[in-house]
Amino acid sequence: MKTLIIGGGIAGSSLAFALRRAGREAVVAEARGSQRDTGGAFLYLAPNGVNALAAIGLGDAPAAAGGFEAYGLDFHNARGRKIAELAGEQDLARYGARGVVLRRARLHAEVAQRAQAAGATFLFNARLVELRTVPQGVEAVFADGRTLIADAVIGADGIWSTVRRLTWPEAPRPSYTGMVDCGSWTEVDLPDTARQQMYFGHRAFFGYTVNDKVAYWFTNVPRHDEPGRYELADLDQGDWIASIRRLHELDPAPVQAILNAARHTLGAWPLYDMPTVDAWHDEGVCLVGDAAHAVSPSTGQGASLAIEDAAVLARWMQHETRPGAAFAGFTEERKVRTEKIACFGRQLGDRKVSSAAGNVFRDLTLPMFLRMGAKATAEQYGYRVPTPPALRAPREKAHE
Ligand SMILES: Cc1cc2nc3c(=O)[nH]c(=O)nc-3n(C[C@H](O)[C@H](O)[C@H](O)COP(=O)(O)OP(=O)(O)OC[C@H]3O[C@@H](n4cnc5c(N)ncnc54)[C@H](O)[C@@H]3O)c2cc1C
Question: How many domains does the chain divide into?
Answer without folding.
Answer: 2
